[in-house]
TrEMBL record:
The keyword Isomerase does not apply. The chain crosses the membrane at residues 49-68, 80-101, 122-143, 155-173. It is found in: Cell inner membrane. This is Inner membrane-spanning protein YciB. InterPro entries: YciB. It comes from Polynucleobacter paneuropaeus. One of its GO terms (cellular component) is plasma membrane. Its main location: membrane. Plays a role in cell envelope biogenesis, maintenance of cell envelope integrity and membrane homeostasis. The lineage of its organism: Bacteria, Pseudomonadati, Pseudomonadota, Betaproteobacteria, Burkholderiales. The gene is yciB. Keywords: Cell inner membrane, Cell membrane, Membrane, Transmembrane, Transmembrane helix. The keyword Transit peptide does not apply.
Length: 182
């Protein structure tokens, strides 16, 4: 359910684009993201750092898109977000010995003690590479294909690739997980 909730602004962006244009869709995405943040705060009294980053990026890139009437900015926003995530994962792991993937998933997943450290390191690197790839792919689709194709990719392509990556990650992780005792 959280996955669909997180997709809410993208789905509304897609619908608004199909009904109107990219500028209307950008405004809708900005309003939806602000509404989403307010709802999360109302329900939980806490906003995750990732949600704050997403809010700031949509407001900054969305505002530039609207005020300069240039769709390039909203098309750059996913790449900025993906590359920010990628850089954060790599820099925090290499310079601060902080594995954010382990922090986010470690309480839900018990890995075998003999492979735990390297598995988390590989998983962190895989996510960093995935986000870097997604940012580059977004640029390619945004600037080599039509606006309509980019909007379709933003909802369906990005989401589909994320789901495939998560499934592959789960298959790979299953080899490193502790078996539940019966």
């Amino acid at each position: 359910m959280k996955f669909l909730f997180d997709l809410f602004p993208i789905i509304l962006f897609f619908i608004a684009f199909k009904v109107a244009d990219i500028y209307t869709a950008t405004i809708v995405a900005m309003v939806a993201t602000i509404g989403q943040i307010l709802w999360v705060y109302y329900r939980h009294r806490k906003i995750d750092a990732m949600q704050w980053v997403s809010l700031v990026l949509i407001v900054v890139f969305g505002s530039l898109t609207i005020f300069l009437h240039d769709k390039t900015f909203i098309q750059l926003k996913p790449t900025a977000l993906y590359w920010l995530f990628s850089g954060t994962l790599l820099i925090s792991a290499h310079f601060f010995q902080k594995n954010w993937i382990q922090v986010l998933m470690g309480k839900q997943i018990a890995l075998k003690p003999h492979s735990e450290k390297t598995a988390w390191q590989k998983l962190n690197a895989a996510w960093a590479l995935f986000f870097f790839f997604m940012g580059a792919l977004n640029l390619y689709v945004a600037f080599e294909y039509s606006e309509d194709t980019w909007v379709n990719f933003k909802l369906f392509g990005s989401t589909g690739l994320l789901i495939v990556f998560v499934i592959l990650q789960g298959v790979w992780l299953s080899k490193h997980m502790e078996q539940a005792s019966q």
